[in-house]
Amino acid sequence: MLIPLGTDRARKRRPHATGAIIILNMVVYLIALALDAAGQTEIRDFMYGMAADREALDHHAYWTLLTYQFAHDPDGIFHLATNMIFLWIFGSALEDRLGHINFTLFYLMGGVVAGLVQLMTSSAGTIGASGSVFAVTGGFIVLFPRTRIKILFFFLLIGVYMIPSLWFVGFYIAMDFIGVFQGNSQVAHFAHLGGLLFGFLLALLLIATKIIKSDEYDLLYLIRQSRKRRIYRQVIKEAETSQQISAEAGHTIPVINTRDQEPEEMKARNEILQFMRQKEYANAMRRYLEAKHEFPLLELPENSQLEIANRLQAEGDRESAAAAYLQFLESHPTSRQIPEVKLLLSTLLIRSLDRAEEAQRLLEEALPELRDQRHLDLANRLLEQIKNKGDSTT
């Protein structure tokens, strides 16, 4: 079994809405237990009185599509506990990106859609936050597909591991499909799958329509990057072929620049480079940050990208500096400066941004490639610092 414990993504705001939803679910369960202990109503009757079912909808009790999300298995707290753990891990990250009110609406809408999907496939009453949590998980995958999840794994052995979030979510999707084909009626598999699909599509729609700005961490950015690389490889291949033909013919054909097809982005890029050539670094940084909001895929030449990142860090804009270093790693993967940039970025993530797990991965990648003994010593000290911090919070 895989239980999530956390992610390698640092939050910028406190997850008040996620915490409030978790507390509300717990309060509902405690009220049910108290009423059952007092002999006023059985816990099973209380929980299934909040259930969403076809009969309730036939009598226009549409509010049950909301109330069922806060009712859980009356025979034990495992159902409630697992849902709340998943909600905290994925919900707190999603709330950080959407904001408190938008996240709450996203969560409740996901639960409503999940409940309707389940009722289309089953006549039994449905309770539980699983559909809402899976909707949140679907949104998480769109906005943070490269995030890694810290999991507690136990089957024959027990251990804590870091795995890609896509692997983790994929495992539970597979379990639901297996449950559907096995006909396990005790679990609302269609609610899980319906909620996940809704959350995935809604989050994708939000960034595609720019209601939420795309950034270098989301799925749309990765798709665009992949498409851009494919076009780039195709253009380079065609250019090489054209150059070969023209060389045989005794003349030269200029290589096409793919960014000629994006004049506004190219204009912004040229403005940044012009400021840098004139050593107007403050203006270069300002224009770079403006352009990144408008063109998340904006890339600069190797040395210019690194210069911008270094100056943003020197100015104290840690978040922007980290994003610029990450852009360097992605845009220039063959650079000889990659190990040193990973070390520099790791130092920033650990000492200023509290993103130790992300830094650990970068340090482990950089360590075999570092040649300078001072850099090796620093990398080992940082890894030891991460380890000691982890031990102190165990």
Mean pLDDT: 84
Spatial strand order of the main sheet? 1-2-3
CATH class of one domain: Mainly Alpha
Q: How many DSSP E strands? A: 3
Which stretches are low in confidence, meaning pLDDT under 50 for 5 or more residues running?
245-261
Shape: elongated
The ordered H/E elements are: EHHHHHHHEEHHHHHHHHHH
Helix content: 55-70%
Task: Please tell me how large the radius of gyration is.
Answer: 26 Å
Treating each run of at least 4 consecutive H or I residues as one helix, how many helices? Answer: 17
Gap from first CA to last CA:
21 Å
Q: Sketch the major β-sheet.
A: 3 strands, antiparallel
| Secondary structural class | mainly alpha
Overall CATH architecture of one domain: Up-down Bundle
Q: Mind telling me the CATH superfamily name of one domain? A: Rhomboid-like
Strand content: 5-15%
Instruction: Give me the CATH fold name of one domain.
Output: Rhomboid-like fold
Write the layout of secondary structure elements.
Layout: E1 2-7, H1 16-37, H2 43-48, H3 54-58, H4 64-67, H5 78-98, H6 100-121, H7 130-143, E2 148-154, E3 158-164, H8 165-182, H9 189-208, H10 219-249, H11 263-277, H12 281-294, H13 302-314, H14 318-331, H15 338-351, H16 356-366, H17 373-392
Antiparallel strand pairs: 1-2, 2-3
Helix pairs in contact: 1-5, 1-6, 5-6, 5-7, 6-7, 6-9, 7-9, 8-9, 11-12, 13-14, 14-15, 15-16, 15-17, 16-17
